[in-house]
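look at this stuff:

>
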Amino acid sequence: MFTLIDLPYAPDALEPVISAQTLAFHHGKHLKAYVDNLNKLILGTEYESMTLEEIVRKAPAGPIFNNAGQILNHNLYFTQFKPAKDVMPAEAGISSPTGPLLTQIEKQWGSIEAFQTDFESKGVSLFGSGWVWLAADGDGTLSILQCPGADNPIAHGLRPLLTFDVWEHAYYLDYQNRRAAHLKALWDIVDWKVVEGRY
């Protein structure tokens, strides 16, 4: 059985980028509902003993895939941020990875700024609800994926590194319909050490 992950920071730690109110609804209500739903759906099935990653790889489109995908997506999303207080004022908006990940981003996009612009654009232009992902293949080549609904790079044989949630419940209380402003603000709290570790 799956359980709701604990957040690695205080409820108000991501403010002003993500408010404590949004976090309470997003983590405590939306994600909890996916966990509860999946546990009911997999009871007595072949999926009951699988990991989230295995379910996402093997389950056909439908309720089990959707709930497992949303749990996996949210777990990766919530654990990729660091408290806003840990971001130095000089770093705000320009924090970036280091090492092999930065080298690969610069090789493919030319600069971290160009990558961020492309990533934001893909998030803004994703129709409806879903996720925008930075993913890597087995050779380390990067790609930006627009994934509707509960889709995840794992379902496409890729490794998920970074994701921005573009379901409205992720930002509407704080940004209303300003999805672009929300996506741009998220860079201020990305913990690139976590993303580099996934790479």
In short: The beta strands are 130-136, 142-148, 159-165. The chain has a mean pLDDT of 94.
